[in-house]
Amino acid sequence: MTKETVLKEFEALKGVGKVKAKLLYDNGFDSLEKLRRAKIKDLTKLKGISEKNAKEILDQLKEKKEKTTKKTAEIQHPEDSKDKKGETVEIVDQKEGAYHPKIKPQLSKNQQEQLVIRRQIKKRTPYFLRDEAFRYKRIPKNWRRPSGFTSKLRINLKYRPSKVHVGFRAPKLVRGLHASGFEEVMIHTVKELERIDPKKQAVRIGGTVGTKKRLEIAKRAGELSIRVLNMRE
Questions:
Q1: pTM (2 decimals)?
Q2: Which of 96, 152, 165, 170 could form a disulfide with 118 if both were Cys (CB 3.0 to 4.6 A apart)?
């Protein structure tokens, strides 16, 4: 099994991202079986993995193994899945409310790198205040470009708040994308889902849409493997 395949399997676990998946792989856990045999104290030795996180990972692997064993038993003994009249009984192998990995966009390597850069820029970007908003309550805090001839903010005096300029702007390739990397599209009807590209686009249901139609949209989006940004998954 290749490294990429193992890392994808690790990332499918709740509480494990790209960084933790690579950390586990680099510390000798190069398969799900090895990770399953690990103990909580083995995982907590790794930097960034807490006791709670380690327990959550091992519980998921244990549950996954039980499901696999159950499916194997059903294949080997199909008669067990029938009732006394000989009718097939539906066997549900997923728990209600079980964790499902969120749908992720298909991004190029360059886009993935620039998304990381955008997050770094966002961390160091201050909250921009309108000129003199920190001093007078009557002035709203939302940003406006300083234009006064005597404005100290306009002439960039050091003791004034930060001013909007191009250094805080996101890279052009990922500008306007959702934090997940999807292009965000606003929709109001089920029919509008048909024109969505699930590999690059995610949808946000409009605020004026009622509960009944929201549920219909969410159901159809699940069938088309489209991510809904403002619905709990």
A1: 0.51
A2: 170
